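Supplementary Note 3. Input sequence used for the single-chain structure prediction.
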Amino acid sequence: MSGFVIWTDQRIMQEITLHYGSRQLAALGLGDPGKPLLLALHGWLDNAASFIPLAQHLQNYYVLAIDLPGHGMSPHRSEDAHYHLVDWVQDLHGLITAQGWQDVSILGHSLGGIIASLYAASFPEMVKHLILIESFGPLTEPEDTSPQQLRDSVLSLK
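The predicted structure, written as discrete structure tokens, is reproduced below.
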């Protein structure tokens, strides 16, 4: 954790660094860490802070809003790397498994919603709730084969 900031209504906002493998992500913890976790994924060219106004209305949850790689305070990938959609799904899986989270609730906006929907479809046993804001899935293959294709791809990168 990098620091603490008092948030409105005496709620706490924490600046957090999360590690998974050799990677790290910056995040904002919004609310009471003793409440159920709601993992928030932001949209394209956005960052974790975009969830601050919404989190004030989610007082029954601890909103953990992450900065995706290359966004907000999270480090960029190497110069020879790309920002493919499946790479963010891999990041999400790495983060969730490294933290030991199970039955995680995920809130995704726009790009974050696409990432979350792909993850939930491929790893349904890991996701308790999926909440999407302004997000429509990118899948173009028949729905009965796409989750297994993505799952196989993510697992092949270990």
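The chain has a mean pLDDT of 89. The radius of gyration is 15 Å.
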